Amino acid sequence: MGKLSVIVSVYNEEAVLEKFYSAFQTVKTGFQWPYELLFVNDGSTDRSLPILTALAEKDPCVKVVSFSRNFGHEAAMIAGIDHATGDRLICMDADLQHPLECIFPIMEKFDEGYEVINMVRVANKSAGFIKNITSKAFYKVVNLLSDQASFEENASDFFAVSKRVADVLRGSYREKVRFLRGYVQSVGFARTALEYTAAERAGGASHYSLRKLMRFSVSTIVCFSDLPLKLGVYTGFVCALLGLITLVYTMFTYHDAPSGYATIVTLICFLFAAMFIIIGIIGEYLAVLFAELKDRPIYIVDKKINMESKADA
Ligand code: UDP
Ligand code: MG
């Protein structure tokens, strides 16, 4: 039986790490396969790193990759995938919102031959009504706009991939502005989904603000669709058509001439609105190009604990 790598991203999770570890100890008694528990410390400023170091000292199955600063959840998951040595990889959160018991059904799916397993959230108790609705709307929009992938609605940062898929993610998909869940769903291979109920956070507070989520949504759409970029052309056509209608209208009503004021004002407002929107969209794409051009590292590793030196690359 292949080795399992459980990848956990950690950012200021001192309140939950020990709970996570002891919950894992309980679940692991049912494992019939070798495993590693790989924590990626995403530049925590609290006691997370010392806690992880202590866990790693007494348990050789606990491995730690620690960043030089906070690089974000996505970077942490990518680093986890890069450093994992297992044949089956599961990415999950440290706050116990992703139930550890799900590891068993995931392993069954792997046994059935699936290589990408998306965990689909059925209900998120701690996320508010608004967060649930917006996340649903978000996936609908992305699916509508993108011809490169079809996304599972309510897909979360909880997923599992085989070593083959992990190798694809390690080699390609090194974009700087990225949406890992999206890549996981667009690499192909045998793919399936399992449902899970997100639990309450075991402690501490969520790191995602509404503003961060908005930012995240825009960059995802920009990463996976170039339709907004072409919006200018469509808007141009619509404006031309409106212009034509106005022209015809003016021709037929020329006898009561100075009545055009309202038309002009409306047209100017409308055209400026369209122009600014399109300039804004171009700005979004430029921002992505800029980020890719700079080619900065996705993450910088400061320290590794319990890791073989071969992963030092
Ligand atoms: N996280 C991270 N880096 C960050 C923010 C969050 O590694 O910059 C981790 C965090 O420790 C947790 C997971 O990502 O394990 C999900 O974060 P959180 O629970 O705050 O998000 P939510 O579940 O509320 O969407
Ligand atoms: Mg959470």
Describe the structure.
The protein has 313 residues and is of the alpha/beta class. It has two domains: 214 residues, Spore Coat Polysaccharide Biosynthesis Protein SpsA, Chain A (Alpha-Beta Complex); 68 residues. Helices cover 47% and strands 18% of the residues. The protein has an eight-stranded mixed sheet, sandwiched between helices. α1 links the parallel β1 and β2. α5 packs parallel to α8 and α9 packs antiparallel against α10. The longest helix has 34 residues. The two termini are 27 Å apart. The structure holds uridine-5'-diphosphate and magnesium ion. Uridine-5'-diphosphate binds next to β1 and α3.
Envelope shape: elongated
Largest sheet: 8 strands, mixed
* Number of extended strands: 8
Examine the coordinates and then state which fold CATH places here, giving the name of the CATH topology of the largest domain: Spore Coat Polysaccharide Biosynthesis Protein SpsA, Chain A
Mean pLDDT, rounded to whole units?
Answer: 81
Structural class: alpha/beta
Query: How many domains make up the coordinates?
Result: 2
User: Strands across the major sheet, in which order?
Assistant: 7-5-6-4-1-2-3-8
Strand content: 15-25%
Instruction: Determine the fraction of residues in helical runs and give it as a percent range.
Output: 40-55%
Q: How far do the termini sit from each other?
A: 27 Å
CATH H level, superfamily name of the largest domain: Spore Coat Polysaccharide Biosynthesis Protein SpsA, Chain A
Q: What CATH first level of the largest domain would be assigned?
A: Alpha Beta
**Radius of gyration from the alpha-carbon trace, in angstroms:** 24 Å
